[in-house]
TrEMBL record:
A Pfam short name: QSregVF_b
Domain of life: Bacteria
Protein name per its UniProtKB record: DUF3820 family protein
Length: 78
């Protein structure tokens, strides 16, 4: 019997990424989706913070690295 892989990805994370403001640091107050890729790369090198914020920043890094930011733009609430 083949082992079934479980997917724990929460699609609401993308909506949250598009609408959460950076709570600390140089870009405090910016929407996370607008953080520069270089800033996210710095976190990748130094280590993402623990917890949900780290997961969000790492996910955003992968999205930007792969040129997929356009997927988050329509999710920004006006």
């Amino acid at each position: 019997m083949a082992k079934q892989e479980t997917n724990f990805f929460d699609p609401n994370l993308l909506v949250e990424l598009a609408n959460t403001k950076m709570p600390f640091g140089k870009y405090q107050g910016y929407l996370m989706v607008h953080l520069p890729e270089a800033y996210l790369a710095w976190f990748k090198q130094k280590g993402f913070p623990p917890g949900k914020m780290g997961v969000m920043l790492e996910t955003l890094y992968e999205i930007k690295l792969n040129g997929l930011t356009y997927l988050l733009t329509p999710l920004i609430k006006k």
